[in-house]
Amino acid sequence: MDDPDELAPAVRSILSAARERADAAAGAGEAVSVAPRDLEAAFERVEADGRVPVIAEVKPTSPTTEGSREDDPVALAEGMVAGGAAALSVLTEPEHFGGSVDTLRRVREAVDVPVLRKDFVVEESQLDAVESDVVLLIARFVGDDLPGLLAAARDRGFQVLVEVHDREELARALEVGATTIGVNNRDLAELVVDLGTFESVAPHVPDDVTLIAESGIGSPADARRMRAAGADALLVGSAIMDGDVEANTRALTRAEADEDEDADPTLDDTTDTTETPT
Which tens digit of pLDDT belongs to each residue from 189-227? Predict the structure, then answer.
């Protein structure tokens, strides 16, 4: 991976904790075997219904947000699905994000959409902590271990979301055969969010790769901007978690439909299109 000193202090702490958990998990159990729910098919179903494919994230807290959300994560997840989410993301990192593998198990049992495990996997042993439909591999964190971890995850049945931040990381992800790629708009060195990051990387992604925009999507306008830049789907956490998760999810999934209705001069003036995520 890149020089850890180039990462923000909060990110270095997250990575250090991940390595400690990986060491503790080494040799602790058998490899899992997953029969995953198809993520790409879920996106296609949502698009066919006229909605924007959104992966809504159950995120109790994070180093970049204030406070925490104490609601039952299963209730939150069910609200997100009711709001039209194509899939869910569940944090399992305990120290900095308040997540757990037990939460992921409970959520996955309660919903019928694909569930992404959002964690900081740096060793193969971490893949066996819990079953999910999709796992995240962050190119910057795993470095030269990306090919081996990608193969190990696929051997277990996982679909894999490979996260990148720039064209160099994208090239590495494509070279090892990643078919689902997320572009994180948050710079892990400064924790600054810039939607232009996705716009600069997306043109270099082949058409046969499923492309997901991550971080900084806080409004239907942001959703439309990322879709116009080539996003097949959006991964959204804070903007959904801050307030009514069902309404916030619905506002994002309807971003393109509501724009079309607003542009239609025959639209009934009494139609409510005011839902916006915070």
Answer: 888 999 999 999 999 999 999 999 999 999 999 999 999
pLDDT digits (tens, 9 = 90+) for 103-119: 999 999 999 999 999 99
Q: What residues are labeled active site?
A: 57, 59, 118, 163, 184, 214-215
Please list, in sequence order, all residues whose beta carbon lies within 8 angstroms of the beta carbon of residue 251, skipping any fewer than 6 positions away: 220, 258, 275, 276, 277
Residue ranges of domains in the chain, CATH in brackets: 4-262 (3.20.20.70)
Phi, psi of 178 (to 5 degrees): -65, 135
